[in-house]
Amino acid sequence: MSRPRSQAEYLARLVPPSVAGLNRRSLLAGAAGAGALLGTGALAGCGDSDSGSGGDAKSVSLGSNQSDPKPKDVVAKVMDGFKTSSGVTVNINTVDHNTFQENINNYLQGKPDDVFTWFAGYRMRFFAAKGLAGDLSDVWGKLDGYTDAFKKASTGDDGKQYFVPASYYPWAVFYRKSVWQQRGYQVPKTLDDLNTLGAQMKKDGLNPIAFADKDGWPAMGTFDILNLRINGYQFHVDLMAGKEAWTSDKVKKVFDTWAGLLPLHQPDSLGRTWQEAAQSLQQKKSGMYLLGLFVGQQFSGADLEDLDFFTFPEVDSTIGAKALDAPIDGYMMARKPKSKDAATKLLTYLGSKDAANVTVKNDPSTLVANSGADTAGYTALQKKAAELVGSATEIAQFLDRDTRPDFASTVIIPALQQFIKNPKDISGMLTSVENQKKSIFTS
Amino acid sequence: MSDLPLIQADRAVPPPAATTTTGGRGRRLRLLSRTDRVVITLMVLLPLLLVLGLVWLPAAATVLLSGTNWDGIGPLNEIDWVGLKNYDDVVNNYPPFVPAVQNNLLWLAALFVVATPFGMFLAVLLDKELRGSRFYQTALYLPVVLSLALVGFIWQLIYSRDQGLLNGVFGGDTDWYGDPNVNIWAVLVAAGWRHVGYIMLLYLAGLKGVDPSLREAAAVDGSSETSTFFRVVFPVMRPINIIVLVVTVIESLRAFDLVWVINKGRNGLELISALVTQNVVGEASRIGFGSALATIMLAVSLVFITIYLWTVMREGKR
């Protein structure tokens, strides 16, 4: 794949091939209709009138997984914005981020909030396909500022929209400019450079790469980026879809490379949360940290301005270093909201550039999805992140968003932790993963 | 020296009074009015229905579901039957299972050998009415009042590798929660901390109920405090001892919250209950597979329950 020349083109690549394929077909048929939706707003008005049966609801509930203080505050501000513009109150039910994810299944089948936070990718399509999410095609009729690609990323297997994108963030290697200037470090371009740099940092008394995997998922980012650098994007997609064998030499090479890098990682990662690892970077005890842009939440003021990043260096020159993880976060609607009217209004607001503007003003650790938003308020870090994502050739959603949730959480997390504990027994670990994968994907 | 108190203790146990009850019960039955009988029937029936509906039905459903590959979504009639495949997978194709069984056994051993006796010991000490015993009682019982989740957070502050109290004070870099060889012990300390208070309170209640004249008699006969406890008080407290034993077994089987708060029961902290939850409650929703794990746990619990019931029933027959 060549580099995209515009943001729209980049965003088109956010979409997994399965959906893109399906949608290209349905889009041909639906292009005229979509144009009509946007152009005349006739259908949108229609949506308003028939959801009027939901009554004059003055409140709507939101299930939010934004439990960290900063994002929680941003959500509250966005909802305040909605109340000001519509007069409808939003009752926010915040649940711990990981807990929310792990309980999503029961949550959606029980009495979910009218609107809830969720992710694009396999995870969204999975619940949409199971009939556990509300159809948002009406809402999409009223949204603008989204490229076709974002719409595709919000589209379920049946061609309807189930998701309103709010923000996205790239994964990259973060560092403190002041530390690097003081020591004269250069951004590594290849794996060898990274190894040399790491060795130098070790000499200088730093943990070269901050690392935490107590919660199980951060190590997935390391696996993803190495897999993308060594085997490329398409292999990532196929591996996540269960089409490739985990016992193959390609996967083995990823872990071999990782094992070579492990001595550069902060030790004892399995007892540390990502926040603690980020603080070691903030306290200048670690030299680099591979994480999502949300790492900025652990920095403030001058420290935040001191934060910079680079994309993970290339490992194989034939693959390059242009692919990355950049997951999209957003909102979905319950299949039977208590007040469809209020829920639809809220989702329309959440997809509007007004909501995006509130986020831009208050959260310097994420990028907003709506291109109509005023991004003049972006920090240098955000501008650079938007550029990085714009220059990427392929975008993955992250391991646990690109594959079956049962596989990611019950097989991959223990396997990666097993590998980190004992990097010597790669084949044994991979054989076990492959056997479990076969059992899960065929059931 | 040791013979005397033993004899005393035997005499002190009140003789079973079996003769008077039968006639009394018959008379009382005849006195029951129709309303009384309806009330009694309802009182038996309602709890029975609740137990059937809330305990035995789900248990039976779990066993049934363990033979399927249900993912927790959609109607029940779409469930596929896969036979014993889940059990095969649990044993042969699920690396966390064996460590989980080992950890459960270790948990039982640690509570049984260390925490429970220590809690009993504290109860005996507190029973002595030391000065400030109420303060100690409160302090030791405090962790029981806190939820295990909160206990988890408290110990997190102590055990964190980079920012924790323990490494901060002693300047070490032990990865208390991350090192799989260490973390189970660290967690057992935290779990024991709570269990000790629980047992202490149970036992203290029992000790308060022991007839003081028994101790006096033992003291008059020249028994030492230690032998009074082991030869007089301990045997008299048989019902409490059994409760403490059962509580210990139950606590170790259902141990869950603490490891879940720490790291979802992974990386050295595997427990069967945590694995069940990971599979059933999580986004994962391998209900069938998780049910197989739960059924295995049920089977293990049944062993203990059977032993307990057998003991109790044999007791009743005597």
UniProtKB/TrEMBL annotation, chain A:
SUPFAM superfamilies, per the entry: Periplasmic binding protein-like II
Region (Disordered): 47-71
InterPro entries: Bact_solute-bd_prot1, SBP, TAT_signal
Spans traversing the lipid bilayer: none
Domain of life of the organism encoding this protein: Bacteria
Pfam families noted in UniProt: SBP_bac_1
Name of the protein this chain belongs to: ABC transporter substrate-binding protein
Automatic annotation (TrEMBL), chain B:
Keywords: Cell membrane, Membrane, Transmembrane, Transmembrane helix, Transport
GO biological process: transmembrane transport
Lineage, highest ranks first: Bacteria, Bacillati, Actinomycetota, Actinomycetes, Micromonosporales
InterPro entries per the UniProt record, alphabetical: ABC_transporter_permease, MetI-like, MetI-like_sf
Stretches that traverse the bilayer: 38-59, 105-126, 138-158, 184-205, 287-310
PANTHER family: ABC TRANSPORTER PERMEASE PROTEIN
Family the entry assigns: Belongs to the binding-protein-dependent transport system permease family.
Cross-referenced CDD domains: TM_PBP2
Pfam families in the cross-refs: BPD_transp_1
Subcellular location: Cell membrane
Cellular component terms per the entry's GO annotation: plasma membrane
Name this protein carries in UniProt: Sugar ABC transporter permease
ABC transmembrane type-1 domain: residues covered: 101-308
Entry membrane topology: Multi-pass membrane protein
Protein species of origin: Micromonospora robiginosa
